[in-house]
Amino acid sequence: MLRAGLAAGTLGLLGGCAALAPSPPADQSNVCEIFREQPRWYDYARESEARWGTPIATQMAFIQQESSFQSHVRPPRQRYLGFIPGPRPSSARGYAQALDPVWGEYRDEAGGTLARRSHMKHATDFIGWYNARSQRQAGISLNNPEHLYLAYHEGAGGYQRGTWRGKPAVQRAAGQVASRASRYQGQLASCEAEFQCRRFYQVGPFCR
């Protein structure tokens, strides 16, 4: 009974954490509306850009592609006989769908032991860190979201070997990320000032 009670309590706690996470934005086609719903997300993405160099619009395009802004999403389990749950196809989870091994590398190198894949601050920082590594290892410009995403999906080594060339679905996803990043960038140009200077102590050009 005690063991069952502890298990139930743990499940309840995990469910509560997911319930407390922000709901995905209603309009994911417009980055201005995304940041109006979640203005702290702008702060996190801006901090990541300042630290690692990946533009805000590209970070948000990655996250939309990977998780549709769902904080606790994981790949669906395989099903045996149509209903028996089996293993998940990968360890990806969270906003950035980071895999266990590379998330461990990120925590050791940059994120710290408290970094969580279900927190937008850490997800944007992870994407910035990963893309900076892709730039360093594969020479990809931080202003090339399509090829950054190919390396994000395949790893720098796989990208350099061209493993993505035989994967039409990955190429389509990379094209979608590039198109969305371009659209987000244009939208952000029209609204970024309201997120840069929204606090009472942020005045004029000093907050930009």
What's the order of the H and E elements? Answer: HHHHEEHHHH
Radius of gyration: 19 Å
Rough shape? Answer: globular
User: What strand line-up does the widest sheet have?
Assistant: 1-2
Percentage of β-strand residues: under 5%
Q: Kindly, what is the distance between the CA atoms of the first and last residues, rounded to a whole number of angstroms?
A: 58 Å
* Quaternary structure classification: single chain
How many beta-strand segments?
2
Summed up, the helix count is 8
Task: Average the pLDDT over all residues and give the rounded result.
Answer: 86
Task: Give unreliable regions as ranges.
Answer: 1-16
Overview of the molecule:
The protein is mainly alpha-helical. The chain contains 8 helices and 2 strands. Helix 3 runs parallel beside helix 6, helix 5 (100-111) crosses helix 6 (120-138) and helix 7 packs antiparallel against helix 8 (168-196). It is globular, with a radius of gyration of 19 Å. It starts with a helix and ends in a 12-residue tail after the last helix.
Key traits:
8 helices; 208 residues; mainly alpha; single chain; 2% strand; two-stranded antiparallel sheet; globular
Describe the SSE topology.
Blueprint: H1 2-20, H2 31-37, H3 39-52, H4 56-67, E1 79-80, E2 84-85, H5 100-111, H6 120-138, H7 145-161, H8 168-196
Antiparallel strand pairs: 1-2
